[in-house]
C-alpha cells in the first residue's frame, strides 16, 4: 500500500524553494528566500510553515482509544475529547518503528506521522484490529500547517477561534479540521489539520494576518535545537525510546508511559527502565562550519578515529550556526573532541541528561542480595 502526499500547492508561492531532492521534504518548501530571517520570525514573532507532506489518518469506532491503548506505548485509554498525545509503535524488541501525534475530537481519533512511514503504520494498525470496534483509514484530503512564535495569539481572528488551546488541547476550526497546540519545537507551537483543498486559502489568510511565510528549514532548525528527534532521520533500526528522549506520559510531553503494559516492545522498555541504561543517548552537536565539506545523515560520529555514534539531522541554525542531532554512546564524556564526517564537532553539555541514579529494579535486586 502506498499513500504519498502530492507536491504541495504552496510550492507555487513566490520565492518558494523546494526541500532537498530525493527526500520526503521535497514535497514542501524548504525556504522562501531568507532562511535565517524565517527562523527568527518563527522563534521571536510568528511564522506559518507548510508541513502538508505529513501522513494523516483517522480511527473511528467506540473502541478506538481503548484498542489503540493496548497496542501502542502511550496511556490513551481515557484521553478526553479535544486532547492530544504523542505515541510510539515499537517492534517486539522495543525498537522504534513509528512516532505519531494523535488528537481525539468529536468521536474521531486523528493521527499524523512521517509521510513516507504513514502507509506502513496504517497497514500495521489495520492488521491489529481483529474484533475491536475501530476503523483506521487514511485521510489524504487533509494536510498539516504549523504556526510557531510568541505572537500566534494575534492570529485568533484569522483562525476563527476565541482562545488558543492549551498544550496538547485542540479546538475545531471553521470549515473543518482543528487547531492543536504542541509543546515543541518552541513554547508557542500550533498545528492546523485542515482540508487539503483549503491549504492555499489558509496560507493566504494567515500570511495576510501577519504570519511570516517560513520553510521547513525553520521548523527543522528549531526542532533540532529543542532536541526533538525525527524517526528515520535521527533514529536507526536499533533505536529504543530511552535513547531518543521519548520516555514519559502525556503530562511529561513524552511518548512512552511507564505505568502501562500490554503493548509490543513493552518488555524492553521496562527492563531498561528498571535494570539497565540505554546504550546511547540523543545529544546536540555543534559543528565546525569552517570545514570544506559537510557530513550527511547517517555518517559516523568518531572520537580519535573510533566510531562512537551516528549523525541525524544536520541543519544551520540562525543563532548557533551548523548543529546536528546525534545518537552517541552514553559513556562518552561531554567534553570529548569529536569528528562528524569531515567536520570537528562538540557535544553541547546542556543537552546531556544527568542519568546517574540507580534504577528501582536494580536497587531491589541489591536489597535481596543483602548489598
TrEMBL record:
UniProtKB keywords: Transit peptide
Residue ranges annotated for the GCVT N-terminal domain, each copy included: 37-244
Domain of life: Bacteria
Zinc listed as a keyword: no
InterPro entries per record: GCVT_N, TrmE/GcvT-like, YgfZ/GCV_T_CS, YgfZ/GcvT
One GO BP annotation of this record: iron-sulfur cluster assembly
Name this protein carries in UniProt: Folate-binding protein
Amino acid at each position: 500500500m502506498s499513500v504519498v502526499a502530492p507536491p504541495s500547492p504552496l510550492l507555487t508561492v513566490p520565492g518558494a524553494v523546494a526541500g532537498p531532492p530525493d527526500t520526503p521534504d521535497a514535497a514542501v518548501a524548504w525556504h522562501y528566500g531568507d532562511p535565517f530571517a524565517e527562523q527568527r520570525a518563527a522563534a521571536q514573532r510568528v511564522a506559518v510553515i507548510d508541513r502538508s507532506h505529513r501522513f494523516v489518518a483517522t480511527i473511528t469506532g467506540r473502541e478506538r482509544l481503548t484498542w489503540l491503548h493496548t497496542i501502542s506505548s502511550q496511556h490513551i485509554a481515557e484521553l478526553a475529547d479535544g486532547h492530544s498525545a504523542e505515541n510510539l509503535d515499537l517492534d517486539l524488541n522495543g525498537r522504534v518503528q513509528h512516532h505519531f501525534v494523535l488528537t481525539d475530537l468529536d468521536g474521531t481519533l486523528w493521527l499524523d506521522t512521517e509521510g513516507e512511514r504513514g502507509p506502513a503504520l496504517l497497514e500495521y494498525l489495520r492488521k491489529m484490529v481483529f474484533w475491536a470496534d475501530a476503523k483506521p483509514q487514511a485521510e489524504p484530503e487533509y494536510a498539516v500547517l504549523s504556526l510557531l512564535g510568541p505572537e500566534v495569539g494575534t492570529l485568533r481572528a484569522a483562525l476563527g477561534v476565541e482562545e488558543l488551546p492549551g498544550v496538547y488541547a485542540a479546538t475545531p476550526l471553521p470549515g473543518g479540521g482543528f487547531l492543536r497546540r504542541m509543546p515543541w519545537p518552541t513554547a508557542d507551537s500550533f498545528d492546523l489539520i485542515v482540508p487539503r483543498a483549503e491549504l492555499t486559502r489558509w496560507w493566504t489568510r494567515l500570511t495576510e494576518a501577519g504570519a511570516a511565510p517560513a520553510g521547513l528549514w525553520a521548523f527543522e532548525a528549531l526542532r533540532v535545537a529543542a532536541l526533538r528527534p525525527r524517526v528515520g532521520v535521527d533514529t536507526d533500526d536499533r533505536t529504543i525510546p530511552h535513547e531518543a528522549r521519548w520516555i514519559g506520559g502525556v503530562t511529561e510531553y513524552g511518548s512512552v508511559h511507564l505505568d502501562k503494559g500490554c503493548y509490543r516492545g513493552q518488555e524492553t522498555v521496562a527492563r531498561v527502565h528498571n535494570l539497565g541504561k540505554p546504550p546511547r543517548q540523543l545529544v546536540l552537536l555543534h559543528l565546525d562550519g569552517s570545514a570544506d565539506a559537510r557530513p550527511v545523515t547517517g555518517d559516523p560520529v568518531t572520537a580519535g578515529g573510533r566510531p562512537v555514534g551516528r549523525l541525524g539531522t544536520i541543519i544551520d541554525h540562525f543563532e548557533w550556526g551548523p548543529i546536528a542531532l546525534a545518537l552517541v554512546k552514553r559513556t562518552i564524556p561531554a567534553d570529548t573532541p569529536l569528528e562528524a564526517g569531515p567536520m570537528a564537532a562538540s557535544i553541547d553539555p546542556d543537552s546531556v541528561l544527568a542519568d546517574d541514579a540507580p534504577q528501582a529494579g536494580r536497587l531491589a535486586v541489591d536489597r535481596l542480595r543483602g548489598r
